[in-house]
Amino acid sequence: MIETFITSFKLKNTYRANSIIYSIKQFPIIRKILPNSLYKNRGLKIFANIISIIIELISIFIGKLLYVAIMIFAVLSLYKTNKADTFLHIFTFLTLCGGVLNTYMLNPTKDKYYAIVLMNINAREYGLSNYYYQLLKLVVGFLPFTILFGNIAGLPLWLGITLPFFVLSIKLIVMNYCLYDFKKTKKASNENLPSKFVWSFVGICLLLAYGLPVINITINQTIFICVFIVAIILGIYSFVKIHNFNDYRKMYKQILTTSNVYVIQNNSGTQAMKNTSLNQIELDKNYTSNKSGFAYFHDLFVKRHRKILTKAVKKQSVIILIIFVAVIIGFQFSAEFKSKTNNILMQYLPYFVFIMYCINRSSSVTQAMFMNCDHSMLTYRIYRTPKVILGIFKERLKTLIIINLLPASIIGLGLALLLYLSGGTDNNLNYIILIVSIISMSVFFSVHYLVMYYLLQPYNVNTEIKSSTYRVVQAVTYFVCYYMIQIQLPTFSFGIAMIVFCILYSLISLILAYKYAPKTFKLRI
């Protein structure tokens, strides 16, 4: 099993190293300098392998740090319950969510496909060795942060140490159940396609995690210890069952052949997404439009694909409304919660940059536009002429802004209402600033992603992202938005600055798109 793991690790590292070299070659200036023989360069291969190992080491800790810091520790101040108990409470329910959403073993990754399907490596040895490695990374990655943040929250050291092993036990229990279910039904679960039951379970756990502390109900240390002991016992039992399971090849054969993550001949990793999109396209209805030219073409596209374009936004809007209602109800139970909410609204408007980044649908919508329209239309020369590109660009920008405007308007109006109900403000302009700044953020992300799509068009015909520049811009966008979480500024000052910035950025971006999009908007190889 150790030899199999070493082989699989080398395979994964080689794949990642080649991906790094490929990414380097995709940058506009560098790709003209570096030759195709770059992959044979031993020095560069060693450099890429070193970077690959560094990425692997960073991945062990960075995700766990963000998870514990943002999802758990950052929200403790919102509750008046005991911080230590609230930390344990949220951690417990989020662990249950993670247990069913991320099993590791049932994730159909490319390295599994290459090793088990193409190279015919022993499925049991490969699956178990990599699964144990993932579990080891999980414990090592969580341990320093459960100790650190747990200690700050008031947890004793020994309890902070037990938390990663609680996560480990839950992972083992869920995986054991999945293997039992496969043995019973002969149908393997694909964690990338969670069932409605899984999503319902996750929704309930999230509600219990963040909702119960509002009404002063949490899991205390005594209850957690009892739960932990039961989890450890079941985890040990599950470990034995997982290790002795013998049908890994059958399971992986089913997952990897039916999975829609891999490229097999003419099937791309987004085939499931394509199939889902096709099922939602309304071709059977006789849609018409009173518009003409590019507007007519785009209007028909939007009407036929309205489910794809607006379904997620409508769900977001409902969830956002429920959250606002829950907060307003929480005001009735806690004056302290009301006071803290007022303080947040007056000082933490920069935080909502990250929230608006997370809920904005522009990236998904542009991908849907490519998948259901541009990947075919870009093969026609007339579709790549400046007049056509700029005409459709203008119509798409209007659509994106309107799509994202629904949740943004609800958030803006909701925040203004919460500010009023939580004690109000001395400057009535703050109500207007809250609404307008949130809408400005929404417009900013709509413009940003559409311009990025047209200037860097990252997809090939199989809807795979092939542009390193696009990924870098995505990463920079994420980190800038995440950095905003750390900033505290008066709502009035930051709101005005955000509105002005969004206007200037939008104008500059639109000028760049109009100037360069006709040259850059094309299919990737």
Structure description:
With 525 residues, the chain is mostly helical. It folds into two domains: 62-258, no CATH class; 293-520, no CATH class. Helices cover 75% and strands 0% of the residues. It is built from 20 helices and no strands. The protein has helices at residues 2-25, 30-33, 42-72, 83-101, 110-118, 123-153, 157-185, 196-211, 221-244, 248-258, 271-280, 293-304, 306-333, 335-347, 351-359, 362-377, 386-421, 429-456, 468-483, 491-520. Helix 3 packs across helix 6, helix 12 (293-304) crosses helix 17 (386-421) and helix 13 packs across helix 14 (335-347). The longest helix has 36 residues, at 386-421. The chain is globular. 31% of the residues are buried. Mean pLDDT is 82; it is low at 258-273 and 275-280.
Question: Outline, from the CA principal axes?
Answer: globular
What is the N-to-C order of secondary-structure elements (H for helix, E for strand)? HHHHHHHHHHHHHHHHHHHH
Distance between the termini: 39 Å
- For the residues shown, what is the average pLDDT? 82
Provide the structure class. Answer: mainly alpha
Low-confidence stretches: 258-273, 275-280
Helix content: over 70%
Contiguous helical run count: 20
Taking all Cα atoms into account, the compactness measure Rg is 25 Å
What proportion strand?
under 5%
Please, how many domains?
2
What's the number of extended β-strand segments? 0
What does the largest sheet look like?
Answer: none
Q: Kindly report the oligomeric state of this protein.
A: single chain
